[in-house]
Amino acid sequence: MTTTTIMSTDVITLNADDSIANALKIMCKHTVHNLPVVDKEGTFLGLFTLRRLSRELLPTAAKLNEDNLLMHINFMPDGTDEVLQRLNDIGQQPVSSLLEKSSTLRFCHPDTKLPELLQLLFESPTSLPVLVLEGKKKKLVGMVSNWDILTKLTINLLGEKNCSSSTDTLNNKHKQ
Question: What are the residues whose beta carbons fall under 8 Å from the beta carbon of 111, sequence distance 6 or more?
Fold first, then answer.
């Protein structure tokens, strides 16, 4: 089994100049945690992620020590209003200002085999872009997530296309 047989190819993408507010609307509508950003030629630029956005919503003092974002910040007076204000301010910026850059992201190729794919996903905080190299350009051909793998394995194990009915079948097998 390779990435080609597992990946999602109907990927929603963003352009670098799309606003963060628009990206969040798309993410909410489609219940995704990250979206790939491509240029006009379809070259992969990076991922816009909720993880990166969450970091930007932290109070400034919490971001002073990049190595220790887990410090206790409960003493900081920021409440919901302050976070919403920061989100409103950030929302006007282009997604390119908060990209997880392709140079720091893990990615895979369409021919990546399942064991390596599992390792890459284990080591990555996001879904993986599936890229094909065309010269020096990285072209996005899909995305693959742990969910994609679970769905594919469930289909192979149970022979069912609908994951919710597969879950019901699993539950019924455990009840017997």
Answer: 2, 3, 4
| Domain spans in the chain, listed from the N-terminal domain onward | 3-144, 145-176
Q: Which residues of the chain have pLDDT under 50?
A: 165-176
- CATH ID of 3-144, from 3.30.230.30, 3.50.30.10, 3.10.580.10, 3.40.50.1980: 3.10.580.10
- In DSSP notation, the chain reads -BHHHHSB-S---EETTSBHHHHHHHHHHHT-SEEEEE-TT-BEEEEEEHHHHHHHHS-GGGGS-TT-TTS--TTS---HHHHHHHHHHHHTSBGGGGEEETTTS--B-TT-BHHHHHHHHHH-SSPEEEEEEETTEEEEEEEE-HHHHHHHHHHHHH--S-HHHHHHHHHHHHH-
Q: Residue 47 in contact with residue 104, Cβ under 8 Å?
A: no
Quick: pLDDT tens for 9-42: 999 999 999 999 999 999 999 999 999 999 998 8
Tell me the residue length of the chain: 176
